[in-house]
Amino acid sequence: MEKKIGSYETLFAISGNYSDEEYKAVLEKFVALVNDNATDVNVDEWGKKKLAYPINYITEGYYVLLTYKSEPSFPAELDRVFGITESVIRYMTTTKCEVAAKAEAAVAVEAPVEVEATEA
Question: What is the domain partition of the chain in residue ranges?
């Protein structure tokens, strides 16, 4: 049976109350987990940003975007690990829809249809 591989993006924020060494330790933990279970891994560190609103009295977070290809079961496991890690304050995993982007580019744009107004 053929394995299904999907493209995913995971954005997570580490609490802003940690030192640089602690950020690196948490980041290395998740990068190692993704490298063990996925391919084409790309890590984009956005750095420390001010949150739009406080989360549990935390006003800053260290943001990281991970893009990777894996089996569909892995993102659920990654979300489970994020949920039990105290230093991660927010996380979100989305599926990248590459097929839809190609199909959308291939669709021809139709001319707008004019509608005449009638008086009643």
Answer: 6-98
- In this prediction, residue 60 has a pLDDT band, given cuts at 50, 70 and 90, of very high
Helix axes 20-37, 73-84, angle to 10 degrees: 160
Helices (H), 1-120: 20-37, 73-84, 98-106
**Angle CA(75)–CA(77)–CA(79) in degrees, nearest 5?**
70
pLDDT (0 to 100) of residue 46:
93
CB of 49 closer than 8 Å to CB of 63: yes
CA distances from 12 to 19, 67, 85, 92 (A): 17, 12, 11, 6
- Cα Rg of the chain, angstroms: 21
Structural contact between residues 23 and 60, judged by C-beta atoms closer than 8 angstroms: no
Tokens of 30: 């998740």
CATH of domain 6-98: 3.30.70.60
Q: What is the pLDDT of residue 119?
A: 62
Q: Distance between CA atoms of 61 and 17, rounded to whole angstroms?
A: 8
